[in-house]
Write a structure and sequence with these properties.
This protein is of the alpha/beta class. The strands form two sheets. Strands 2-1-3-4-5-6 form a six-stranded parallel beta sheet, sandwiched between helices. A six-stranded parallel beta sheet has the order 9-8-7-10-11-12, sandwiched between helices. The chain is globular and about 60 Å long.
Length: 382
Amino acid sequence: MKILFYDMGSYIYHDFLYYLRKAGHTCKTVYYHFPDKFHDDFFCERFSEYLLNDTYDVVISVNFFPLVAELCSKHRIAYIAWCYDSPLEERLADYFHYETNHIFLFDRIEAAGYQAAGYSRVFHLPLAVNTDRLETLTFSASQIAAHSADVSFVGNLYESPLETLLYAADDFTKGYIEGILQAQFRIYGSYLLDELITEDLLQAVNSSFQKIGQSSLKLNRRGLSYAIATKITHLERSFLLQQCGELFNTHFYTTKPCDLPHVKLCGPAKYEDEMPCVFRYSRLNLCPTLKCIQSGIPLRALDIMGAGGALLSNYQPELAAYFEDGKDLILYESMEDAIAKADFYLKHDELRRQIAANGFQKVKKEFSYPKRIEELFRVAGF
């Protein structure tokens, strides 16, 4: 097939493109970074020129872009979007109805939610990892020394807007939200926030905005849920890093400064050639999932296992469905469980090494790009 590939700097672009071409497809890429992905006359004009001046069988992007969907609908060309972000921004659903769309989400519960709402062109498809590239990477002695650690975490702590949103709220509203935050904080494998956020609670929060003159600001259920979920994620990641830092040699790779006195702050790690070294030479790799990813396997978890690293993750339904706990990876169900398991596997190195080897073989077999691309095109009708 002849493919027009739109990309704005996604992590998986190069691996995805490599396997599309390896499968015999002809690909042309358009690079563009949206200042505003909902309104951009310059992009629309230029992208339309590409579609008018040549013939393509399909347009593909990593993540869903509303203007690409709109233009593909206008020019009657199929659009495939494979998303590694979750949950998707709510406004994007306004563009899901186009008949040319084929939208793939890695979170089964999120995909099912859209399907139940009538979006029949949204599908579930787990992500992939390029083990062919990762297993051929070699690293210098200095790189290995720099990135060797007992425990590493690559990611961010997340900055939640929750405190700002509740600045003018009354004590009852703040107390109720703190209660549901603490309940969700302790539960893995089930997302309760959407059910616990009632219309009365939303009204109370929005009324507090009006009291301080912010009449134009109105929060919906998804916005409040995301604010609480990012706060929980911040608390969980901070706690785990602090505890691991006190007990083990712990590295934290992140883009933003933070105060974790017992943890070695290493700055960001480059995706293609530095992260794999971190994952391979860290004895355990923490991967606490963003709390509002309800069931899916995030890209970072696959990256860790694909690089030959031992994954220590919170319980996720799809991780438990595809992998065996204690054989392919290590899953925890509480903060205390995470620390206890880290301590156990750091003291049982052969068992930890075997888990890393098993995880690598599982993702190599079950989460390969050729396998995912075949499914992508089959579901989209190609």
